[in-house]
């Protein structure tokens, strides 16, 4: 009997080996592919309007996607160890069926994936292989169908899920309640049935508005704003002003809160009527004594040459708000009205970046603030919120070129821009007297601060070349996405070129010309300093931003501050930084042009001269002779980027570059 048992054991052993082999070998083959190979294979499954991968992704190639925590590949972000961290392929016009996301499972560090704001179709993808994914954004596509119940069960670390503005239907899967969930957006779909129970203490944003949901709102969601549940006529319970009956359906008839509100309003009206009546009676009683007193006072006659003015004392705005609001609240029926009034007076922040942590203007007022700068155009502050990263708040007083509706539409247009070299607009506030723009805080500050703050030695030749290259690419994206604007940036200067942790250029304060008055634009905006604007009826051209880029290139190479070379009443092209550079080069003193603080320049002197020539070509006074932006980028890309030099040789190269 022992022999059949050994035969059976041997059979199961070889069966197990066969199964393991067929399972492991494909995985090993996948692991043999580099992250670059995986991303390029995934890109090749994407289709734009022309049936090919979108233009920004066609530049993916060598070198690989990551160099430390920075990436030269569009839409790719990286961990510090050089592995892919996130993939942001938003607003690329992607069409057709949603690609197979499981192909990305072999990227071990992938934590964030966004294909939002495209035109992708099909059912919800199989994400079971993406167990370590923390953030998934598929909003504003054309996805449809029922999401299976156990879809999100493997994703125990899921933090943010945004599926709004699609056509999903069926019940909300119970597995969506990941234990670490922070944000959930299911708005504007066709989900139906009850909401699953949410008990995550860290959950801070939920939006399920405009679906076909029904039943009581789970207690774990009752702390959120009622607008997050609007458009579901069969939902009931807090925070909605609709009570649930014994069967969990909305109770018909007037709710308790509505009854309380009506009683308070009626009570307020009665109190107002009593106050008015008392005032009239008291006024009649006081009229005669007041008249008699006036007649008995010396000099009491009111004449055109001796008027009497009854003026109210000056009151601080904040104090006025604190004293007048409770009275208005009492008349309207309680503290809720006072809160609404404060919100209306301060205005409200409008967020245009999906998936961002929301905060109110009151949070900014309470945050610790640091003044970053102040100029003719506005002031900027760094605000460190109690929760979330630091943000920058820019305050503009002369931004009244358009009304509220046009301003909001332009801000939404800017919010749709996405490029590694553009600073995203997070939120804005519109008030008639001033506007606030909220952006992320960029750690290394502005290029101007480093160049002219005795820290220019931090910017070696390689960094300066990359900064110029990134600036040009960001500007080109503005030209591509905002073709209706004569000057897509309009205010390109070194203080509006920010530097991230890897010293990559990030452009700020772009595309603001449409929302400022023509007088402010002509007085403040850098593009309006171009030579073509100096004539009596001069106005900017499509190449005025190119002129600004040329001045920036010369500033980076020379270390000279351009404003020191601008003179009022100058002849075009003779009184600016370009004129100074031209005069030095003409006298064959080119070596004196370059900033003495540039390190790492040994062996790259010819490349520096090439970039200088590009800058001069951008600053041609004759617009027809001035380089166009495509030519500028092509010529910059031809300049070789220096290899990373060893730290030991940096000081030695510093002297040679001078």
UniProtKB/TrEMBL annotation:
One Pfam match: LRR_1
Chief localisation class: membrane
Span list, region Disordered: 284-340
Gene Ontology CC entries for this record: membrane
Keyword Signal belongs to the record: yes
Parts of the chain that traverse the membrane: 260-281
Signal sequence, renumbered to the chain: 1-30
Keyword Thylakoid applies: no
Domain Protein kinase: 366-644
Molecular function per GO: ATP binding; protein kinase activity
Keywords of this entry: ATP-binding, Leucine-rich repeat, Membrane, Nucleotide-binding, Repeat, Signal, Transmembrane, Transmembrane helix
Full protein name: Protein kinase domain-containing protein
Top-level division of the source organism's lineage: Eukaryota
Protein's cellular compartments: Membrane
Biased composition (Low complexity): 328-338
């Amino acid at each position: 009997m022992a022999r059949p048992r050994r035969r059976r054991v041997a059979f199961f052993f070889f069966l197990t080996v066969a199964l393991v082999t067929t399972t492991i070998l494909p995985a090993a083959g996948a692991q043999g592919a580099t992250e670059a190979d995986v991303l390029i294979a995934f890109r090749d499954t994407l289709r734009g309007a022309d049936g090919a991968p979108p233009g920004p992704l066609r530049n993916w190639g060598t070198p690989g996607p990551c160099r430390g925590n920075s990436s030269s590949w569009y839409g790719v972000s990286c961990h510090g160890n050089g592995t892919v961290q996130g993939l942001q392929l938003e607003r690329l016009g992607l069409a057709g069926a949603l690609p197979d996301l499981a192909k990305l499972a072999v990227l071990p560090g992938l934590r964030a994936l966004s294909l939002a704001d495209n035109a992708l179709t099909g059912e919800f993808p199989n994400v079971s292989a993406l167990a370590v994914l923390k953030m998934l954004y598929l909003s504003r596509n054309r996805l449809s169908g029922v999401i299976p119940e156990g879809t999100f069960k493997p994703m125990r670390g899921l933090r943010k899920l945004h599926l709004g503005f699609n056509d999903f239907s069926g019940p909300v899967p119970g597995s969506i309640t990941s234990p670490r969930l922070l944000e959930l957006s299911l708005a504007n779909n066709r989900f139906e049935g009850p909401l699953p129970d949410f008990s995550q203490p860290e959950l801070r944003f939920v939006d399920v508005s405009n679906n076909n949901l029904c039943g009581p709102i789970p207690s774990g969601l009752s702390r959120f704003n009622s607008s997050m549940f609007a458009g579901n006529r069969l939902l009931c319970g807090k925070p909605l002003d609709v009570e649930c009956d014994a069967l969990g359906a909305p109770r018909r008839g007037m709710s308790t809160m509505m009854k309380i509100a009506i009683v308070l309003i009626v009570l307020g009206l009665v109190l107002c009527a009593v106050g008015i009546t008392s005032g009239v009676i008291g006024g009649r009683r006081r009229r005669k004594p007041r008249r008699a007193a006036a007649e008995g006072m010396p000099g009491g006659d009111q004449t055109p040459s001796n008027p009497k003015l009854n003026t109210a004392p000056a009151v601080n705005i904040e104090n006025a708000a604190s004293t007048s609001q409770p009275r208005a609240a009492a008349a309207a029926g309680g503290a809720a009205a006072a809160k609404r009034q404060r919100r209306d007076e301060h205005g409200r922040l409008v967020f245009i970046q999906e998936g961002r942590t929301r905060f109110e203007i009151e949070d900014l007022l309470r945050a610790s603030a640091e003044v970053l700068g102040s100029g003719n155009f506005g002031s900027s502050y760094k605000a460190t919120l109690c929760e979330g990263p630091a943000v920058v708040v820019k305050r503009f007083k002369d931004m009244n070129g358009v009304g509220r509706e046009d301003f909001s539409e332009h801000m939404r247009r800017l919010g749709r821009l996405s490029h590694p070299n553009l600073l995203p607009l997070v939120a804005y506030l519109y008030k008639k007297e001033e506007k606030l723009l909220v952006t992320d805080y960029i750690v290394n500050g502005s290029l101007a601060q480093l160049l002219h703050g005795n820290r220019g030695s931090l910017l070696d030749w390689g960094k300066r070349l990359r900064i110029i290259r990134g600036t040009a690419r960001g500007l080109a994206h503005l030209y591509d996405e905002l073709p209706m604007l004569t000057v897509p940036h309009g205010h390109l200067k070194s203080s509006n070129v920010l530097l991230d942790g890897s010293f990559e250029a990030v452009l700020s304060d772009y595309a603001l010309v449409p929302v400022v008055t023509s007088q402010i634009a002509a007085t403040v905006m850098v593009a309006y300093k171009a030579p073509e604007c100096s004539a009596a009826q001069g106005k900017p051209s499509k190449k005025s931003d190119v002129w600004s880029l040329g001045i920036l290139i010369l500033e980076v190479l020379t270390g000279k501050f351009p404003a020191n070379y601008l003179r009022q009443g100058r002849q075009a092209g003779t009184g600016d930084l370009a004129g100074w550079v031209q005069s030095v080069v003409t006298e064959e003193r080119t070596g004196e042009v370059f900033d003495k603080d540039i390190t790492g320049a040994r062996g790259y002197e010819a490349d520096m001269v090439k970039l200088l020539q590009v800058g001069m070509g951008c600053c041609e006074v004759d617009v027809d002779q001035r380089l166009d932006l495509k030519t500028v980028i092509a010529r910059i890309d031809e300049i070789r980027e220096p290899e990373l030099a060893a730290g030991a040789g940096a000081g030695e190269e510093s002297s040679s570059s001078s």
